[in-house]
Amino acid sequence: MHGILFRLKFKLCAVLSLALLFSSTAAYAELSAAADAKTSAQLINAKSGILMEASTGEVLYEQNADERLPIASVTKTMTMLLIMEALDEGKISLNDTVTVSEYAASMGGSQVFLEVGEQMSADDMLKAIAVASGNDAAVAMAEFVSGSEGAFVEKMNKRAAELGCTNTHFINCNGLDETEEHYSTARDVALISRALISHKKIFDYTTIWMDSLRGGNFGLSNTNKLIRFYKGANGLKTGSTSTAKYCLSATAERDGMQLIAVIIAAPTTADRFSSASALLDFGFANFDAVGEGFTDLPAPYVRVTGGISEQTAPKINGDGFIVKKGCRDRIETRFELAESVDAPLTKGQKLGEVIYTVDGIEAARRDVCADEDIPRINLMQMFIRNLNDWITL
């Protein structure tokens, strides 16, 4: 009888332990998930919003993030991305001279009042887009990069698809005169913004508070007021129309963590800035981004059978990860690697995983991969190796 009771108690404890473990793991996994409904109602006053950590793409908060909505001049995040990519590919240079067409000069809304035939450097055009949200400058650069705005817009839609933006479609490069066919979502804007800020040069423009064009004769003031008033703010793009209401993709960096807060359809301009600030505050207060020091740890050697090298030093593959604030010092690392692999070995081939835990609970795992090609050893190479081993003995 006592044996039966003992076994029942043991099984009950085991079940409870598993339940607690599952509960703890689930709780940790939810550290980076959105806050509950009560909290989300307090964080933003807008139809849609999202908070993303830039290095990992991990979403820390979201509210109605996948509804297709007009985004006004936040469209220019994609315009600037294509400009930055054209610069990196050497297709254009910041020193290039851009000549303004009649069509570009005809743009209304936010503009820097370009005149037909006026010439301005690509550097100044990019400044006009990033700081003053110049619709005319956006069209001038679209024509310069692709020959026409239509061709540029085709590239915008293609690039959006490549980034995984499944709910985005553009009909122009500046967000002016939107129709129902021009839309995006908070999540997609965050993805585009993440790609844009991977080009660090863009911060040279998006962090400008006040500047000028035309030899100091035309003043610029950043439409993103967080650049001046929010600690760590470094971008990115505002937008507003009567249809889109007030929109913003705001970026900020503190203590090595770069955040992206997107607000779509806030009722007032004050609401978009206060809502973005609230999202950024939430992220900085509750999370830490873990990167260098953990993602570049040396992995144990793995034995290679039948290769010209007898072992290889693999490397961790992938981005960093997010942990709850204050947990960084409690992160432990465990490698689970193959004891040996057969040659040939290909660079990038998965050899195992590294698991990061906090207080014994998994926080993240990343692949550990070969960092070199190792061909199979041939008979002559094997003979020379054995001969060298014999001489050494």
Characterize this entry briefly.
It contains twelve helices and 18 strands. It is α+β, with helices and mostly antiparallel strands and 393 residues long.
Please tell me about this protein's structure.
The protein folds into three domains: 30 residues; 254 residues, DD-peptidase/beta-lactamase superfamily (Beta-lactamase, 3-Layer(aba) Sandwich), CATH 3.40.710; 91 residues, Peptidoglycan synthesis regulatory factor (PBP3), Domain 2, CATH 2.60.410. Helices cover 36% and strands 25% of the residues. Strands 2-1-9-8-7 form a five-stranded antiparallel beta sheet, with helices on both faces. The protein has a four-stranded antiparallel beta sheet with strand order 13-18-17-15, covered by helices on one side. Strands 12-11-16 form a three-stranded mixed beta sheet, with no helix packed on it. α3 runs parallel beside α6, α3 runs parallel beside α8 and α5 packs across α6.
Outline the fold blueprint:
Blueprint: H1 2-29, H2 37-43, E1 48-53, E2 59-63, H3 76-88, E3 97-99, H4 102-105, E4 119-121, H5 122-132, H6 135-146, H7 149-162, H8 186-197, H9 203-206, E5 210-213, E6 218-221, H10 226-229, E7 233-241, E8 245-254, E9 257-266, H11 269-286, E10 287-290, E11 302-305, E12 311-312, E13 315-317, E14 321-324, E15 331-337, E16 340-342, E17 350-358, E18 361-369, H12 379-392
Parallel strand pairs: 11-16
Antiparallel strand pairs: 1-2, 1-9, 3-4, 5-6, 7-8, 8-9, 10-14, 11-12, 13-18, 15-17, 17-18
